[in-house]
Amino acid sequence: MTEVSLKWPLWLSLWAVVSSLVCLWDAGFVLSRPDSMEGGKLAWIWAPYPAYYNVDRSYADLENVWTITQSYGNIIEIVFCLFAFILSLSSSAETQLNSVLLIIITSTMTLWKTILYWIQEAVADWEYTKNNEFFDLLVYVAIPTVFWFIFPYLAIKWGVGVLRKAVLQNKAKKA
After folding, report:
1. What is the largest CA-CA distance in the chain?
2. What are phi and psi of 40, to 5 degrees?
3. Taking the CB of residue 66, how many other CB atoms lie within 10 A of it?
């Protein structure tokens, strides 16, 4: 029986790093409002954001508890994701296995947060997005959000597959 590869695929490593940077930028915007908004002293850092928060008005609403809460959740997610990535670089099989488990957990958090975003918007009768033309909603919200469904799902599927193979390999060694 061949040894189970615990090495992360390149796409997963890239996703972990790039999505963490995007989430950090996003959380920074939300938690720095109103200074991060158009006309604010930090607005230059988030120059493209007015285009987004004119489509998803929850980002313009300084009192929107969900937006603030998910930003703190982003910070926790970033810490877990980057820690998992760092663990994945280890030469220790046990540490690499822990990275696989942690990326499954982190990806589940990411996927669930994305699902919750859409559920809360639907329950609120599309309060923050119903003002849009279909094209704007598609380009600024729906298409970018697809990545936060697809990549976490793929990471979970990959990780569970690795763990399943590792368990079967361990059972075979004991037999």
Report:
1. 68
2. -80, 160
3. 15
